[in-house]
Each structure stands twice: as structure tokens, then as C-alpha cells.
Amino acid sequence: MEDKTHIESIGFILKKEKLATLAAEVNYPELVLEDLDPFPGFYDQYFVPANANEHKPRSVFLILKEFDVCHEDEFIRKTMHLRREHNIKFDAAPGNLTLFNKSTPCIRVFMDNYNQIRELINHYKEMGLVFASTKVVKPYQSLIKLRRYFEMDLMDKGIYHDANQHNTYYIEVPKFLEWDDFEQVSIAIRNNWDHKLYDAAQAAIYGKQGIVDMIRIYDKKTNLSNLHYLQKKYNYELSRY
Fold first, then answer.
1. Is the pLDDT reported for residue 104 higher than 80?
2. What is the DSSP track for 129-171?
3. Where are the beta strands (DSSP E) in the chain?
4. Helices 224-239 and 179-191: crossing angle, nearest 10°?
5. Given CA atoms 224, 228, 229, 233 in this order, what sign does their dihedral have?
6. Strand 90-99 relative to strand 140-156: parallel, antiparallel, unpaired?
7. Three-class DSSP category at 56
8. What is the DSSP letter of 88?
9. At 227, which helix (H) or strand (E)?
10. pTM value?
11. Residue 71: which of 51, 45, 94 has the closest Cα?
């Protein structure tokens, strides 16, 4: 019997974050950007870390000269091969970000040891990937769209908990908005609610009937009642578009 309380699918995340050239002791000939402001709705001016041991999540973006989404299966096979054959613990997802006002292909990378970035890039280059040359990129806001494999558990109708990321949740919504409209809706909801320590992004997964649109919520102190509130508010605001 099919387990409808556990969902596995592919899809995408769409978010806006602050990026800049990676600040590192090593000078990379390839362009590597770092995420300066992950989950901005949570880690921005609303939030002060509780103690020195709490660190923001971190990711880096390896900028490609070109990437054909039709060849995504080849990228996945290359990544699987690297994990099997080399002692590098990492997660990689293909996507696009905005760079100098243009949509640019990239690989988003999480790593246990960021000192292995050089080794990881070299292995990808040996497999045929071509990276953009380095340049100074000052901090800027970038729209980022990443392909993702989703694994989530049903909490209530239209509300899910990410099975691999403890503080991450998903709310089904009836439609997809252009980012600027989504951002305005999110600001309006936050400004009219006392609970402000969360970050919202757009997401979608592929289901039997097509695309299922969602809002991704990152929140360390949420509960089902708060998620129901956001579901109700987003559904109302999206119905006005």
C-alpha cells in the first residue's frame, strides 16, 4: 500500500540571498561565490544568535560557463561517481542565480570541509564541466533557483516537515507568484504577525497531476498552529492575485 504520509519527489527552491566572491586563503582561478545571508528572514535584523556556538548554515556556489538542464542526469551521475571514488563529503545541486543582471548556471555546494573545494572543482573539470573565471563580486542580492530532491513527512493537510532538515517545513499553496509579488506578500504577512523569526521561500515538487506549489518555511521555534496560520494567510493573499 502506498504511504501517503511520506513524500519523495524532485522539484525546486526559489529564494533570494546575499552573495559575494568567496573570502578564503586560497585564490581560486574559478569564480566561487559564498552565501553571506542564508535564511535572511531568520538571520537578519530580527535575530541575534543565542550563543557563540550557533553558526549560520553555509553554502558556496561554483559558477559555470554553461549548463544544459537536459543534461542534468549526466551531472547527477558525475556527482555520484565523485562521492563513490573520492574522500569528499559534499552535497551538490544544479541551479541558476542572478549575476550581473543575467541568469547564470551554478552548482550549490554544501561540504563538511570547505578546504576541499579546490579538489572538488578539479574533479568536476576532469569530467568536462567548464567553470567561469574568477572576478571580484561585491555583496549583492541574488535570486537563486535550485533543483532539489525532496523528502518530507505529512504533518497535516497541505503541511509537511522536511525529513532531512529539522527546522524546515513546506506549506501547499494554490498558485505560484512572480518573486517580487511573493516578496511583497511575505512582507505584508510578517508585518502583521508577532512571530517574525522565520524565513520564507518558494518551492515546488512534481506530483501525479503536475506541479505542486509550496512555501518553504525555515523556523526553529514553530509549531503546527503557526504553520496553519501561515497557510491561511498565504492562501488568502494569493487568492487576490
1. yes
2. --BPBP-----EEEEEEEEEEEEEEEEETTEEEESS-TTEEEE
3. 6-21, 32-35, 60-63, 90-99, 102-111, 140-156, 159-162, 168-172, 199-207, 210-218
4. 130
5. positive
6. antiparallel
7. coil
8. -
9. helix 224-239
10. 0.87
11. 94
- CA dist 120 and 118 (Å) reads 6
Give the CA angle between residues 105, 106, 111 to the nearest 5°: 170
On the 0-12 / 13-18 / 19+ scale of CB atoms within 10 A, 215 is: buried
Residue 51 pLDDT: 47
Residue 106 has pLDDT above 60, yes or no: yes
Summarize pLDDT for 20-46 with one digit per residue, the tens.
999 887 788 999 999 987 655 544 544
Dist CA 37 CA 58 (whole Å):
9
Phi-psi region of 139 (alpha: psi -120 to 50; beta: other; left: phi over 0): beta
What are 241's three cell numbers? Answer: 492575485
User: Which uninterrupted H or E stretch holds 81?
Assistant: helix 72-85
The rounded distance, in Å, linking the Cα atoms of 176 and 179 is 9
Q: Distance between CA atoms of 198 and 41, rounded to whole angstroms? A: 6
- How distant, in Å, are the alpha carbons of 158, 172, 185, 205, 241 from that of 235? 11, 9, 11, 18, 10
On the question of pLDDT at 58 being above 80, the answer is: no
**Nearest one of 200, 237, 235 to 215, comparing CA atoms:** 200
Q: Which CATH superfamily includes the segment(s) 10-142?
A: B family DNA polymerase, N domain, alpha/beta motif (3.30.70.2250)
